[in-house]
Amino acid sequence: MKLKFTLLLFILTSLIGFSQNLETMKKDVQKIYDLTIEKKYDIVLESTYPKVFEIVSKDDMKKMMYELLDNDQMKISYVRVEPNFTFSEIITINNGKYCIVEHNNSFTIKFKEELGENKELILENLKQTMVDYKVTIDEKTETFILDGKAQMIAISDELTKGTWKFINYNGESPMMKQVLSEEVLTKLGL
Known about the structure:
The structure is a single chain. The protein has one domain (2-187): Nuclear Transport Factor 2, Chain: A, CATH 3.10.450. Helix content is 43%, strand content 27%. It has helices at 2-37, 41-46, 52-55, 58-69, 118-129, 175-179, 182-187, and strands at residues 74-78, 86-87, 91-93, 96-111, 133-138, 143-156, 165-169. A hairpin with a 2-residue loop joins β3 and β4. The chain is elongated. The protein starts with a helix and ends with a helix. Keywords: Signal.
């Protein structure tokens, strides 16, 4: 009887711990999404998986983000949409916990000079490079609109001191294999 009670208590504790872990992650993900829309990138970087900053310093990353999103040629703006977050199963790999988070994502690209005939070429180029996104153009404003799904990986390990930190997943990024091992990427199905 004691064994059954102990086993039941263990299972309930594990389920509650998992639920709290997932609930914490859900709150963190929503916060990051909101901060990104609000262009508070300094705070967003605080939620970035620390190993990223072994490759690129936090200051350089911040500078690159601002330069990419608003430069002499174009401005990229995130658009608030209903993110409809989905969370994969949390899996443990080598003392780390990992979860793939997918969400709706929308942003616009507005070039600072009139595009004229080049807009069709740019539209086709964006469609070819952003294959996971629906790419359209507002002809009147010459603003490109991209709607699709984005993925990030939630990570809780020794580097994060047991808290959830995140990295945007882009399978084509060479940095991904520098940040996460081949084993982790394979077990996550990426």
